[in-house]
Amino acid sequence: MDLVEAKARGFDEPVRHWWERARVRLALDLVRAHGRLSPGDVVLDVGCGDTFVVEHCARVCPQVMFYAVDSAFTPELIAAFRRRLRVPNVRLFSSLGDVPRERPARLVLLMDVLEHVADDVAMLRDIEARVSLMDDCRFLITVPAYQQLFSSHDTFLGHYRRYTRRMLRQTMTAARLTPVVDGYLFASLLPLRYAQVLREKLFGVPHGATTDLATWKNETLAHALSAVLVAEGRVVMRLARRGIRVPGLSVVAVCEKSA
Q1: pTM of the entire structure?
Q2: pLDDT at 37 exceeding the cut of 60
Q3: Cβ distance 87 to 62 under 8 Å?
Q4: Are 178 and 59 in contact (CB under 8 A)?
């Protein structure tokens, strides 16, 4: 969860939204298939938010060290999240410059982060310049899809843009990264977001608009819906590997440093 959303929840431990649950499970699928992690490796989670993703990954990969960085962390937030962490293999930082350099990272996670910065290429280059990365380090990137879907949701979260697959590939190329696999996720959610955008155009943005991630409370429904999205996402990614691109609400890519 983005720290803006976590703040809207008062930084309590929420019932996790079905989209957030599905995203982390699908990300772990890609990590297993393309992350090439071994015991003792380091994973860098840039823009980690309220640590939900990094903690979930750390439980699944207990022999891997995770460095979680978010520029919005304050000393108080870091202390609070450290008290809440249930895994020993996560370390929290507020700056890339604070990340230890003696152990190069094998994998970098950027889960819905690039849309938050004015210059996404500069951010990717900055990571490589300021953090120690292995020569064969890979990046797992997710971003929101389609600029025509820009809505109050994006404004609330401080997004600069939404992407197409082609735009993300251009960003990776400009940052000297080579795509390994890419595609879209959450195809079934596209009609819902189009309906939201149309409603906002016709009737305006509701007063006090936030995001469902910040307000969701139904545990049973979240579990069921996330299972549906995971099953759909796995089918869509299999099709993507065969060259069949199904549009979706998010763009996802695994890429590696260019030679």
Answers
A1: 0.91
A2: yes
A3: yes
A4: no
